[in-house]
Hints:
By secondary structure, the protein is of the alpha+beta class. The chain has helices spanning about 20-30, 80-100, 155-160, 165-185, 190-195, and strands at about 15-20, 40-45, 65-75, 105, 110-115, 115-130, 130-140, 205-210, 215-225, 230-235, 235-240, 245.
Amino acid sequence: xxxxxxxxxxxxxxxxxxxxxxxxxxxKLVNENKIENGQVIMADFQGEGRGQRGATWxxxxxxxxxxxxxxxxDNLSVKNQTLISKYVAISIYxxxxxxxxxxxxxxxxDLLINGKKICGILIENQFTGHQIKSSIIGIGLNxxxxxxxIDKITSLSLEIGTKQDRMSILGILINSFNKNLDYIExxxxxxxxxxxxxxxxxxxxxxxxNEKLGxxxxxxxxxxxxxxxxxxxxxxxxxxxxxxxKFC
Length: 248
Ligand code: BTN
């Protein structure tokens, strides 16, 4: 049993005008014991939005979806933590797909449309010993922003061609998270399968960088149980963790 019984995401949603980071806000509520399982925190603006690897997450005020979902867990060992990360990726994948888009999951958990990033995920877990007690799932989904400071970023409105209603999109996202909850318990193979089937650059010759290997050409062949990316290069398969590999 990984999930608390009767978990339902989004029964309580807290809307904030402005916050440092929705993940920080959720963490504070966790420490104060003031958060419910499945609660969603949404903000219009983050002053210190955080991305992966210590990056900053910029988002124009009122344009996008900036949320953190709080999920309580039961007996999920640290060994299985990639299950949560894959569950999150495939849930957002399903939501984007239902909007008529063709998303890809870039390992470990970015969502891309036509090679451009539309959504970033920052998962922060709370532990007791070797178990994950709960998870704060931070999601930044670009909805109506059309100008970005960096290249290779896109949004729903750029891809669909019209302004989108953020609240409807939030509803679609939450539904998708709830629909896939069951698979965490009953069929994690399904989660692995959907994740792998939609992995960006799977089985394609691609350019990477690794400190030891330098620039190299390889082919992504899969993701192992620990969530490491498997890349075949020069006749052998090497597994990389997030810090060890850059896509070029
Ligand atoms: C990444 O791709 O680098 C992850 C970006 C995660 C951004 C979201 S926005 C809501 C939540 N609060 C944060 O400070 N970060 C996440």
